[in-house]
Each structure stands twice: as structure tokens, then as C-alpha cells.
Write a structure and sequence with these properties.
Largest sheet: 4 strands, antiparallel
Number of strands: 8
Shape: globular
Order of helices and strands: HEEEHEEEEHE
Structural class: alpha+beta
Distance between the termini: 49 Å
Helix content: 10-25%
Strand content: 15-25%
Radius of gyration: 18 Å
Length: 128
């Protein structure tokens, strides 16, 4: 095999592996009345909860029914400030800068921010 073919093959393999090395973030940025916020793939606003610990969710049971988690798969990899945390039930959830991410069940359409300030200010919009 000539050195130019070997180089071309090495480059092709490197480029094929590049997307795996730099996973896309699990969120998007959306515009709301309160400014730009992180959103899920459907454009729904994401929130953080003051009672969560660093990379630990305190929102379980009925709380997680009202505040659905931004689910991650076991195979998902950390990307640009995002990490995958393990919840009490063993499922996976995305966190941004150590803060677990949630949607709010009462938000009905992209751009809704009805959960911001909920529970005496414990819930906050997740900002990019």
C-alpha cells in the first residue's frame, strides 16, 4: 500500500470517528418572553430546580410527573457542559453545568415559561 493511500485511509477513518468524539448537545435554544432559554428537541422550555444537588436530582415520584426529566440514554455521552446523571430509579437524565434539566407539564407549547419561579422561586428557566 502506498503512503498516499495509507494517508487517505487514515484521514477517512479519522473523519468517520469525529462525530462520535464531539456529540451534539441534547438541547436547543429557544426565544421566550423572558429571553433565550434552553429547550428540548420539541422546543419546550427547560428548567432547573434549586433543591437538586450537583448532578443529583431531588425531583422524584409525583414531582417528576409534574416536571418530566430531560431523558438521556445510557449510551449518551457528555457534550459541551452537558452530563448524563443517574436518577434514583436508575434511569438517565441530562444535566447542564451540573444542574438536572426538566420540562414542565403545564407548558403546552414552545415558548411557554409558566414554570419559572414556581414553588416559591425554586424552579428556574435553564439559560444557555
Amino acid at each position: 500500500m502506498t503512503s498516499s493511500i495509507r494517508l487517505a485511509l487514515t484521514l477517512a477513518i479519522s473523519l468517520a470517528l469525529l462525530p462520535a468524539a464531539f456529540a451534539a448537545p441534547p438541547t436547543k435554544t429557544g426565544k421566550t418572553d423572558k429571553g433565550n432559554v434552553l429547550t428540548d428537541a420539541k422546543g419546550m422550555s427547560l428548567y432547573t430546580f434549586d433543591k437538586d444537588g450537583d448532578s443529583k436530582s431531588a425531583c422524584n415520584g409525583p414531582c417528576a410527573t409534574n416536571w418530566p426529566v430531560l431523558k438521556a440514554e445510557a449510551s449518551d455521552a457528555a457534550a459541551d457542559g452537558y452530563t448524563v446523571i443517574t436518577r434514583d430509579d436508575g434511569s438517565k437524565q441530562w444535566a447542564y453545568k451540573g444542574k438536572p434539566l426538566y420540562t414542565f407539564a403545564k407548558d403546552t407549547k414552545p415558548g411557554d415559561v409558566t414554570g419559572d419561579g414556581f414553588l416559591n422561586g425554586a424552579w428556574h428557566l435553564a439559560m444557555p
